[in-house]
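Researcher: Please translate sequence to C-alpha cells.
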Amino acid sequence: MATSILKTSHRIVAACLEQLHSHPAVIVAYPLRRTNWVFYREAFGRRGTPCRCVSLIADIAHITARQRMLTPDEVERSAEMIAKGFGQRPFSDLILRNDESNFAETSDRLVREVDHFSG
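Model: Translation complete:
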C-alpha cells in the first residue's frame, strides 16, 4: 500500500506542476497524513513552489444532510476521518469549515484564502 500512496503522490505533484504553467494556484482535495504533507512540502519546495495545506472540517450531521446524498460507505469514511482529526491537522495553514454555507460560498471563500496565500 505504501508504494501505491507514493506513486499517487508523485502523480499528484506532476499534475500540479503541469497545471501551474497556466494557473496561479492548484487545489488538490486529498486527505493528508503528516508523511504526505512532508512529501508534498519538500517536492514542491525543491521546485521553488510554495505548498499550503488547507484542511476542511465539517460536522458529520451536516455531511449526511447535504443535497448530494452520500452512500453509507462515504458516511462511514467521513466519520472515520473526522474522528481521526483530518480536518484539524497541526500543519494546516488554514482550517476551513465546509458545512456552514453552500458549495458556491465555500468555494468562493477558499479562492479568497488561496489568493491571500499567494500575496
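Researcher: Any highlights?
Model: Residues 2 and 8 are 10 Å apart (CA to CA).
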